[in-house]
Write a structure and sequence with these properties.
By secondary structure, the chain is mostly beta strands. Helix content is about 10%, strand content about 45%. It has one domain: PCu(A)C copper chaperone (Immunoglobulin-like), CATH 2.60.40.1890. Strands 1, 2, 3, 4, 5, 6, 7, 8, 9 and 10 form a 10-stranded mixed sheet that branches. A hairpin with a 7-residue loop joins β1 and β2.
């Protein structure tokens, strides 16, 4: 199909928006957590880990307690923060608190999902199936299935220090 360039751009944008909408379709029991601007960072051959990022809002409050994907052997909720002049990363064993009606952003250089033991590189422009696991204040567990667009992304400021 030989479309004029502007029409190709419009069609590409429409497909990207449709993919983004699919990335926010909740599984049963998780409709209370809203996910926006979700994406995963592309990786290269030989790279064993990458990150996934998004904005989460839970109207009644919840806790992000885990994640899983068939693309990685391990998916964990992590935090990066400065300790002196060194950026440190650690897993959040108890998960990430999502206060009621407040948006919590998972972003490079802060809270994020760490995907380790990648089974193959995540190519720019592909998609990543990801399941988020939540727990509400009553201990009720739920999941949310996502399909994240994979794209390149800059490292967080200070992320090069170890």
């Amino acid at each position: 199909m030989n479309l004029p360039v502007p029409r190709r751009i419009v069609i590409s944008l429409l497909l990207a928006v449709a993919g983004s909408a699919l990335a926010q379709t909740p599984a049963s029991g998780a409709a209370a957590v809203e996910v926006r601007d979700a994406w995963a960072r592309a990786s290269v051959p030989g790279q064993s880990g990458t990150g996934a990022f998004m904005k989460l809002t839970a109207p009644a409050g919840a806790r992000l307690v885990g994640a899983s994907t068939p693309a990685a052997g391990v998916a964990e909720v992590h935090e990066m923060k400065m300790e002196g002049d060194t950026m440190r990363m650690r897993a959040l064993d108890r998960g990430l608190e999502l206060p009621a009606r407040q948006t919590v952003e998972l972003k490079p250089g802060g809270y994020h999902l760490m995907l380790m033991d990648l089974k193959q590189p995540l190519a720019n422009g592909s998609s990543l199936p990801l399941t988020l696991q939540f727990e509400d204040a009553k201990g009720q567990k739920s999941t949310l299935d996502l399909n994240l667009p994979v794209r390149t992304g800059a490292a967080a400021p200070g992320a090069h220090k170890h």
